[in-house]
Specification:
Distance between the termini: 18 Å
Helix content: 25-40%
Structural class: alpha/beta
Number of helices: 8
Largest sheet: 7 strands, parallel
Radius of gyration: 17 Å
Strand content: 15-25%
Shape: globular
Number of strands: 10
Bound molecules: 6-phosphogluconic acid
Order of helices and strands: EHEHHEEHEHEEEHEHEH
Length: about 240
């Protein structure tokens, strides 16, 4: 399902409402809500709105469990850290128990960081698959999502839930969840905003490119739902948005 909002503010409100609705539903049905957060700039406003009334007050924060889709292998308080961004924008301002916040830690040791995060996820989910209630993802201009970058070995991964990847343009390793792990989610919501995303969004949604070239095309929940929350500038080139 594709939902087009007039601008990033409206998109962010829509994403925050989605989080709140799914959190209430998850907690009512299963006693907890398991969310996977995205990095990048696009979700920042959504995270801020989640920390503000009225949305904040609708969410049963004590039953929320937070994971991340990817992380740069930098110290935990580095401004480039996705977890640090989410803490500043959201988690520092809401009563999620610290023991339920699970950042990816990989500074200096990408492979060990990936193995450790997979171990943490396997312990959390027990014998089952990583059934996140809600996954937020972003979309890079080169078609990457989480840290599933075009042409990297991690795209071929079938068994591991988390893996390390070297991002040459950044000179940094990252740890990312793999596509098979993300695809176990009940609901995956991509957030994409701005004119700069229009071309890649058209390719991802309407093109036929190999997912090794456009990794966002690997995301297709096996037993769940895929939604795109986009703004009008990003939707500009889509067939139905002319
Ligand atoms: C990250 C990501 C990445 C991001 C896209 C889009 O940490 O960078 O998880 O996949 O979502 O690069 O980033 P923007 O939202 O900044 O455009």
């Amino acid at each position: 399902m594709i939902r087009v909002y007039p601008d990033i503010e409206a998109l962010s409100r829509g994403a925050a409402e989605l989080f709140a609705d799914e959190a209430r539903r998850g907690v009512a049905a299963r006693g907890r809500f398991i969310v996977l957060l995205a990095g990048g700039e696009t979700p920042r406003r959504c995270y801020e709105l989640l920390a503000e009334a009225p949305v904040r007050d609708r969410i049963p924060w004590g039953a929320v469990h937070v994971f991340w889709g990817d992380e740069r292998c930098v110290p935990d308080d580095d401004p480039r850290s996705n977890a640090a961004m989410a803490r500043r924008a959201l988690l520092d301002h809401v009563p999620v128990p610290e023991a339920q916040i699970h950042p990816i830690s990989c500074a200096g040791a990408p492979h060990e960081g990936a193995v450790a995060y997979e171990g943490l996820l396997r312990a959390f989910f027990g014998d089952g698959p990583p059934r996140f209630d809600l996954v937020f993802l972003g979309l890079g201009e080169n078609g990457h999502t989480a840290s599933l970058f075009p042409g990297t070995a991690v795209l071929e991964e079938r068994e591991r839930w988390a893996a390390e990847v070297y991002v040459a343009g950044e000179g940094l390793h990252r740890v990312t969840l793999t596509a098979p792990a993300i695809n176990q989610a009940a609901l995956v919501a991509f957030l994409a905003a701005g004119e700069k995303k229009a071309a890649v969004l058209k390719e991802v949604l309407e093109g036929t490119a190999d997912p090794r070239i456009l990794p966002a095309r690997l995301i297709s929940p096996a037993h769940g739902e895929l939604r795109w929350l986009i703004d009008r500038p990003a939707a500009r080139l889509l067939r139905h948005e002319a």
